[in-house]
Design a protein that fits this description.
The protein is an all-alpha fold and about 90 residues long.
């Protein structure tokens, strides 16, 4: 779980920046962009700019698919927990 959390913490700032930029048109889109499009675009950007970091995770026994899936689940849970804050 620590590896998934570490990978997620590296992707989160990019995801928040992209979500804010893309979700500025409508606050209703913020959650959906954060959970889906922003997350996967952040994963792609991270893997594009930090190509050699995948070897760290491979040496620990984690594939890229497992990292993305674990981080996506963390992202979905955190997004669902903070979703009611959008309506306050």
């Amino acid at each position: 779980m620590k590896v998934y959390w570490f990978f997620y913490k590296q992707i989160l700032p990019v995801n928040l920046a992209l979500t804010t930029a893309l979700g500025i048109a409508s606050i209703d889109l913020f959650y959906w962009v954060f959970v889906s499009f922003g997350f996967f675009l952040s994963v792609w950007l991270y893997s594009f700019f930090y190509k050699k970091s995948k070897y760290i995770y491979c040496n620990l026994g984690y594939s890229k698919g497992r990292l993305v899936l674990g981080s996506f689940l963390i992202n979905t849970v955190l997004g669902t927990v903070f979703l009611p804050l959008l309506w306050i």
